[in-house]
Prior knowledge:
Strands 4, 5, 8, 9, 10, 14, 15, 17 and 20 form a nine-stranded mixed β-sheet that branches. Strands 1, 2, 3, 6 and 7 form a five-stranded antiparallel β-sheet that branches. Helices cover 9% and strands 50% of the residues. It has one helix and 20 strands. It has one domain (5-229). The longest helix has 21 residues, at 5-25. The protein starts with a helix and ends in a 16-residue tail after the last strand.
Amino acid sequence: MRPSTSLRFAAAILAMAVTAGSAAAHQVWIEQEGGKASFYFGEFGHNLREISPGLLDRMPVPQAVLAGKDGTKPLTAAKGEKSIALDGAAGKGESITAAVTDYPAFERKQDDKTIRTVWTPAARFIAGFETRTPSLALDIVPTGKKVDGKVEFRVTYKGAPLPKAEVEIVALSGWGLERKTGEDGTFSTAFPWKGTYVIEVKHKDETPGKRGEESYDAASFVTSLSFATDAGLESPAAPPAAKPN
């Protein structure tokens, strides 16, 4: 027996909600290999990378910039089957930033009011722990210092230190730990394994505003900082690749 129209409609709405929720729970990050940088959408610690056709199609192409001692240079981004390719690579002392500022807004009901939230996923890749100047709305940058042998970082929001922010540090193997920033927005950590790491921070600003001509009730941000290190122990293997949504 065929499902009723109302049941089919409810199923469609549920599917849309699940897809939107999956997207919001994800992160973006940048990896660099063979002189090429790629912008990924998924969950690094679970070895999940969204693809096209699939959830990667929902991710707009980011605005990407290569920054170094000679200034900044816009990068071209092109969507592929497994990632969004960036036409540049970060050398020593340089970094790549990429931010999506036009991801479709989410709406939810709170009592009798519709709450509209805009989501800004962003990523920074660094080649080395030299100090960097924040440039993303929500950013993580190295301070160029070490504290008790640990590398120090600072989290900023709109250029100002963000205290008490919860930070998650994840290695390629899925190993991870959490930190919380101090009043000056800093935290420090060691990296026991060789390989790639992704550090993530989230922040929600419940101040109403406008994104272009679009009004919103709250702004949600998720930003990652990624890098590769040759120091440390040999890393355990990455978990099996998770099935894309």
